[in-house]
Amino acid sequence: MKFAKYLMLVFVFCACTGSTKAQTVAFLGGGSSALFQELGAATQSIPGISCLWSFGSTTTPGGTPYIAAHDGRTGVNDDENGKFFVAWGPGTGSCASPAGSWSIYAYIQLDSVVGDRCYFENDGSGSSGCTLILQNTGIAGTSQITTTPDKPLATALPTAVSNALLAAPHFFVAGTDIRPEDAKFATQRAFTPCNQYMPRQYFNQDSYYLFGLGYGTGNIGTAIQGNASYGGGNFGVYNFNVTGNDPISGAAVPAYSVSTIGAQPIVVAVAPANTGNGNIAAMTDITAATLSLFYEGVLGRTSDLLGPTGGAEAFTTLVREPLSGTYNTFEYSIPQSTQFHAGQDFGNCTGGGAVLSNPMALNNGNGVFGTASQRVRVIGTGNMTKFLQQATTPTLGYFFWSAGNAKNLTNVKYLKVNGVDPLLDTATAYNGVLPNSGATFATDPGLAHVGFAGLNAGDYPIWSALRLVGPPGNAGVAAMITALATLDSSQKDYIPPSSMNIWHSHFFLNGQSAIGANGTTVGSSTLCSGGIAEGGGDAGGSTLLIINNAHFCSDYGNTGGLVNKTF
Q: Which of 15, 69, 87, 297 could be joined to 130 by an S-S link, Cβ 3.0–4.6 Å?
C-alpha cells in the first residue's frame, strides 16, 4: 500500500443516461487486506451480480488509472492507495451497458485500521467516511482476485459504473480483522511517545503496560515507512474516534454495527522452501516463545528452531506496519501477550524517545550476523507474501490465511505453532505445503482438507474474527455476509460463525468509553443468554470455548461473559 498527500478535487459526474438511473451502490468501503480476496470472490455469489473489474494498487495522481480512498479532513488531505475491485449486475442490460435496476459492490484493500478510520472519519462536509477517487479507469482490469478472474476478462470499467460510484463516493463499510476499539488503540499507541509506558487494559494495568511507538503527537503523525528493499511504501498516521466526535473536524462520527464473518488464523511462514535449503526443509514447528524472541529481535539463527541440524544461517524477519490488523492480531497473540511482554517494535526507540529506524531495519541476535539477520518493515499483505515467495535466503513472516493469499506461494512453507497446525483437518498429515498453493516440495493437500481442527479446538494461538463494520441494518453488508458463507463452503478461508466453537475474551481498553462484553451470540450459538452487546477490544484476548461463556453467564447471572481474560 502506498500513500500520497495531495489535496484532490474530485469532480462528480451525474449519471444522465437511462442505464444509470436505477443503480444502487450497495457496498462501498475498504480496509483489511485479509478480506480483499474473499470479498471480491463473494460478490459473484450475490444474486444479480455477475460482472467484476479489478486493478492493482495505483500511486500516481491523474495516472491511468488512479484509485484511492481520500481523507479530506483539514490538515490530513491524504490518499490511501490499494488494490481495488468493483462488482455489479447487468440488470436488464449487459456488463458493458447495465440497464434497469442494478447494484454495485466495491472495496479497496487498505488495512484494518485505515478501513476503520475511513468509516468513522467525518470531514464536516455533511457525509462521513473517506471519499473514493476513481480516475481514468477506461482500461482493462487486471484480475486481482486470484480465485475469480474479472468478468468479462480484459475489459474496461464501464463509465456508467464509475459515474454511479462517484455520485455517492463516501465509504460506508469497513473490512477489519480487529474490532474498531482495537483499531483506535493501535492509533493511540502510534501517537504515544516512543519508550513511554502506556496502560492497555485497566484490569491488569499495574503489571501490563506497553511502550508507545512514537510516530507523532496530536492528531497528525509521521508516516510509517516500508523498507525499500521489501516493496517500500508508507503508512499515514491519523487520529480518529469510534464514538462521539471526530478529533480533527469536531463533527459527529457515524453509528455502527459489527458483523462477524468467521474465525481466520494467521499462518507463520518460512522461505525458501523449494531450493533445497536444508535448514528450511527441516523446520516443521515453532514454539510461541521462540516466535516471540525472533520478533523482538533477540534471536536470528535458523538453528534457533527445532529441526535444523546444519550450520546456522541468518534469518530475515519480516514485520508488518503497526496500524495493520494483521500486525495487531499477531502482536497481542504472541510477542506482546501477557505471557511474553515483548513486541515487534522492541528496541526501535532512541534514548531520547524518538523512533530509531523508519523504515525499520534492526539487527537480530545482538548483531551476531552483522546486517545479514534483521527485522525489516513490510507494508501490506502483498509485500509480505511477495518477498516470502522471492526469498533466496532464510526469511520468516506471517499473514492471514486465505486461498487467495496462498495461491502460487510455491516457495513458502507454513509452520505449526506450539505443535498445532492451524489449517488442516485431523486426518491429514502436516507437511508444510500451503493448501492449493501449487508448491511441489511436498504433496499439496488441497483445500478439501482445510478443516481448521486445531484452531476450532482452541489450541492455535494466532487468530481473529474477521468483521464488517457498517451502518446498523445495512442491506449491502447483509448480502455480502450471506455470499461469504456460500463462498467459504468451497474456498475454506475461515470457520463460519455457525461452526465456530471459539471466541475471544473482550475487555475495556484504556482511554476509551466502550465497556468490555463478549456479546450474546456467535452465529447460531448462544454466547451469553440475555447478555449485553459485544463491546471493547479482543485482540490478544484469551481463546474461550463458546459453551464455557454461555455456562458462565447462566450459572452466575452474568451479562458480560468471561471478559478481561488475556493470554
A: 69
> For residue 13, what pLDDT is reported?
33
Round to whole Å and give the CA distance between 175 and 108. 10
User: What are the C-alpha distances in Å from 30 to residues 72, 83, 130, 170, 303?
Assistant: 16, 10, 9, 11, 41
Residues 507, 436 share a domain: no
Identify the domain boundary among 421, 440, 456: 456
The answer to whether the CB of 263 falls within 8 A of the CB of 450 is no
Per-residue pLDDT at 17: 33
- Residue 62 and residue 86: Cα distance in Å, rounded? 19
Query: Distance (Å, rounded) from C-alpha 454 to C-alpha 287?
Result: 15
Residue-level pLDDT at 202: 59
Please report which confidence band the pLDDT of residue 2 belongs to, taking 50, 70 and 90 as the band edges. very low
Instruction: Classify strands 413-417 and 66-71 as parallel, antiparallel or unpaired.
Output: unpaired
CATH number of domain containing 373: 3.40.190.10
Residue 330 three-state SS: helix
Q: Within 10 A of 436 (CB to CB), how many other CB atoms are there?
A: 22
Residue identified by cell 468509553 is 513
- Mean pLDDT, to the nearest integer, of 153-169? 95
503527537: which residue's cell?
Answer: 217
Give the structural domain span for 424.
262-456
Residue 406 domain-assigned? yes
Least confident stretch, 184-193, 453-462, 483-492, 524-533: 483-492
**How many Cβ atoms sit within 10 Å of the Cβ of residue 376?**
20
* Distance in angstroms (rounded) separating the CA atoms of residues 487 and 556: 39
Average pLDDT over residues 175-188: 96
Bridge partners of 23?
102
Residues with Cβ < 8 Å from 157, sequence gap 6 or more? 53, 86, 137, 138, 141
Per the structure block, which three cell numbers stand in for 208?
Answer: 501490563
Nearest to 400 by CA among 10, 115, 35, 34: 34
When pLDDT is cut at 50, 70 and 90, the band that residue 210 belongs to is confident
Is 493 within a domain? no
How deeply is 258 buried, as exposed, middle or buried, from its count of CB atoms within 10 A (0-12, 13-18, 19+)?
buried
Q: Coil, strand, or helix at residue 126?
A: coil
Distances (CA, A) of 268 to 19, 95, 176, 399, 418: 48, 40, 20, 7, 12
